[in-house]
Amino acid sequence: xxxxxxxxxxxxxxxxxxRRKEDARLITGRTLWTENVVLPGxxxxxxxxxxxxxxxxxxxxxxxxxxxxxVVAAFAGSDVADxxxxxxxxxxxxxxxxxxxxxxLAIDEVRYMGEAVAVVAARSRGAALDGLAAIxxxxxxxxxxxxxxxxxxxxxxxxxxxKGTNRSYDWVFDSAEAGAGGAVDAARDEAEVTIKRRxxxxxxxxxxxxxRSVVVDPSGDQYTIWSATQIPHxxxxxxxxxxxxxxxxVRVIAPDVGGGFGGKLQLTAxxxxxxxxxxxxxxxxxYTESRSESLVAAHHGRDVIQxxxxxxxxxxxxxxxxxxxxxxxxxxxxxxxPGVPILGAFMYNAIYKFKAYRFECTGVFTNTTFTDAYRGAxxxxxxxxxxxxxxxxxxxxxxxxxxxxxxxxxKADEFPFSTVSxxxxxxxxxxxxxxxxxxxLGYDELRREQERRRASNDPVQLGIGVSTYTEMCGxxxxxxxxxxxxxxxxxxxxxxxxxxxxxxxxxxGTSPHGQGHETAWSQIVADQLGVAFDxxxxxxxxxxxxxxxxxxxGSRSLAVGGIALYNACxxxxxxxxxxxxxxxECDPADVEFAEGRFRVRGNPDGGxxxxxxxxxxxxxxxxxxxxxxxxxxxAIYDPVNFSFPHGTHLCAxxxxxxxxxxxxxxxxxxxxxxxxxxxLIVEGQVHGGVVQGIAQALFEHAVYDADGNLVxxxxxxxxxxxxxxLPDIVTDRTESPAPGHPLGTKGVGEAGTIASTPAVVNxxxxxxxPLGVNDIAxxxxxxxxxxxxxxxxxxxx
Amino acid sequence: MIPAPFEYTxxxxxxxxxxxxxxxxxxxxxxxxxxxxxxxxRLRFAGPSVLVDLGRIDELRGVRDDGDALVIGAMxxxxxxxxxxxxxxxAPLISAATATVADRQVRHRGTFGGSLAHADxxxxxxxxxxxxxxxxxxxxxxxxxxxxxxxxxxDYLESAVGPDExxxxxxxxxxxxxxxxxxxxxxxxxxxxxVGVAALVRRDNGSIAEARLALTNMGPTxxxxxAVESALTGVAASDAAAVAAATxxxxxxxxxxxxxxxxxxxxxxxxxxxARRAVLAAxx
Amino acid sequence: xTRISVTVDGVRYDDDVEPRTLLVHHLREQLGKVGTVVGxxxxxxxxxxxxxxxxxxxxxAVKSCAVLAAQADGREITTIEGLSxxxxxxxxxxxxxxxxxxxxxxxxxxxxxxxxVDLLExxxxxxxxxxxEGLEGNLCRxxxxxxxxxxxxxxxxxxRAAGGVAAPAEPTVEAGELQTPDSGxxxxxxxxxxxxxxxx
Lengths: 797, 284, 200
Prior knowledge:
The complex is a heterotrimer of chains A (797), B (284) and C (200). The longest helix of chain B has 20 residues, at 264-283. Chain B has 12 helices and 14 strands. With 284 residues, chain B is of the alpha+beta class. Chain C has helices spanning 23-30, 92-99, 109-122, 128-134, 146-161, and strands at 2-8, 11-17, 49-53, 59-63, 76-78. In chain C, β1 (2-8) and β2 (11-17) form a beta hairpin.
């Protein structure tokens, strides 16, 4: 393509608020969840889990379970030791990382409450559960370590005694060493103001609403695995590798999947246990977790301690940023768990022009459920730390928090911008997004109301919180992932199959679980190929039809997969051109494709559609010499850079100082995610993301007691917010197209979650500043807020 | 999760239910609306041998006017209570508290008597029953007996209903001339009360002549805030400061729990705020 | 085993069930009504919500994971699969969920829709706050609830406009969307099985 040629078709579908194709089955109850799969002779699995956080398994006897009606088999870890493999960590972030074996069924020792120790297969789900109660396990308690800093201390009890340490890895980025900026020591010398803060990202649970479920069918020539997973392609590869099963003998199907948020980005113990059980029994098996199992056994997220040192001049110019993290890995390393803080490492400098930056991270083992990706994965933590710190700096300098940010952020005419963490930001306009957000919130009026409430000593105080965020989407350039020691690439695929009747099948390597790819991909293809939206079928999540792909996480599907899809469409057009030219009896060079028709240049009449060409190659009766009779095309795209959406979120919160209750009065989200394919879907992603971030700020916390029991182990105690706990969210957009993307799109899956948490906490703290409060640990529950007020006022309030 | 196996019977009379409970022995358990019990069965925190379902006994359902009191059948669902005009007119405190119980779906199945007999200190209705001085009618092998609300709640999750007894109905005095309010503070919309206050107030010439307050979740059983009640006597209903001074004593003599939802300290503070709001709302 | 008879989506079924069988498992595993799903074990999430007749015969929303199948003996039940009207048309609440993009992964959706139907039955013209409170028994992790609230409001308007009857209404095209006329969900896209089959 030469620079003078524009995209060849007129865009009509892209940008339109298309109602989703997916909805038809979802609103009528005709969905195929993994749990709906029933096969002849299928056995049900139930998994016995450790009630202790750390213990030696002195003995385990599964035999009594076999006496119960309906129980077919029961295995402990030692029964399957030679075949169960070990759960892999695909992101060993350093060469000397301590990465202990992670067995699907524990054998000699359990290291967190909820770890699987035995499995029962039975003819009904009830019988399998009854079998669990009959298994006899003798646990000998071992010392537990829960606190991250205690785990790192000299002489600490060890999660893995054979490793001799609870330290998994130390990972450092230094802008001076990397050649991306100066040294933090020099910045400190130049500084007139230093802000030092410790922030704690509490442990969260992704809490997708569909519990994880897996069915394994060993009959036929392949193992067929249905799983509620975000990563069917990666799963196939990993199952094959871990169990030494030839990859072509494994088929993975992710049918309709009920949410993931990173929580289903995992090869799970349960998947391997089901695989091993099906293989051994020669029968199809199904395992579906209960919610209380899910909360303790599916991986957790966040759980990071952040020590921040931000240096600046009195005029507000930021200089250096020094970040020290301790990240709780839990008892083992998850699939990409060690890399989660590293994903955040590049975002602490956010939208600001720091001179110097240093990031140090230590991964530590504790006797808790292992942690891994949860929506945003590292970036919400980074954004929280910097956005909270910028508010603290603004207070220190007596500046409006917006004004301080303005003085430091990258200006619209400075893109592409090379940051102190070594990334190149593609595009953006932070002034535009912020100005729009301020207008929508009514910032100045709310500041006046805040003054009035402060002056009258109103028991209900008002606070305004700011979060100007950016994030990196479109994971990821494969070469960069390699440099970061990640175990896979970051490309994505798309295939177009032109059916003889002109209908189109699109095969994508992404694996949607709520994101609406069937709709958005159809919109893109409809525009590019000039076919009707309804004539496009998007196939995904079955390695038989979509054998290749890297799945859906990290706001990558449209940012990376969308380019593959666009490129595949262009290939189809190029293939169809000579066919059309032949039918039009002209030279292919004289054919142009626009508005769904191939026409002879300069002749607006007649022409041939893509369907005409598809039929012509199907018949193949009269094609030009040497033409392969197909229009089908594949494309794989490996990104050369991330994309960098950004935005400004503002939160006005009322704080009842008598009870500590926080009520969000108004929330404004102005996001710039580049060009938008479907504004309905984008808005929905923002809504959901913002609410998950609000939930971290105010509601959710995975809490362990001193014995290592997860006490927030049901939905009664792990409190997801309901509709009644949440505000309306005002959304709007600005648009800085992604320069590297033919459609100009960036990515939106995580933006809301990344932005909203600091906006809310900044608002709560802002409301209480006059009372002497300058931080509240998340979640800002009524009690914690009330206590912060008490502590600040010496208990006099 | 699926419950452990149990036997099930659904008798059609109170006598048959009592008989089934006696026959079932100590592992027999009454199933009312099941909204607390069935989740416990699913988590296998409870494992009764026999469930005696009261859902087929017509006598246990409905609200009737009995002169100076209402009689509410134990198996009347929360939503039936909410819809009932007699309750709305004569026991608005019950309507107000019932509207805050759990969520719509649970209110459609959960029952008035079940909530009382379950005796969960975080439940909203026990404190209401205490404030209203309700009387519980209990059927057992030896016939029927009545227990006043003040004696009905024995301990944490323990009521006066014996293992082979059935709560039949609750007699609720009408309290004409009194106004009422139930103030609940929960962390999440769906959640249990951290603290709740059931307030009944009789006004006379703009002053509080008498007040009755009962507290939710300030101990293993609902408790009357007697110190507040006496302190409120004679206070001008519109005098927020005087009401606050009286309700500041709401935590006296309470034994709130320390748990994941809230500390005892916080509950003791919170109850003073919630009591003030309840009284001011009831008295306005 | 206990013998029970339930009428589900217009069809009567007589079965022997284990007393411990939950209604939701009876619906899913015995009757094949897999549109209703299980999301938790503490009746917190509401994903399993169906309509079931109460003692007075009125169908109200219940969490079918907190009801024993035995307790449902003699009752009438409507699931998400029985909500569509004659001619494969969508119930106004289903249609509004589609129009307002009130679902993403869709796992909570059957329960959310059934709870909304129940709410609108009692309160045909709810405020946003009443909608939010009315749906406090249902968890959604994807949408942040905002579009659900919009959808329920829109469904309420549609039902009231139809004279209080929850009859499928004509789709509307809003201003600004005329360039991409999207007439909602074509009726033929709703599978036949979604329509209640008359009792034999």
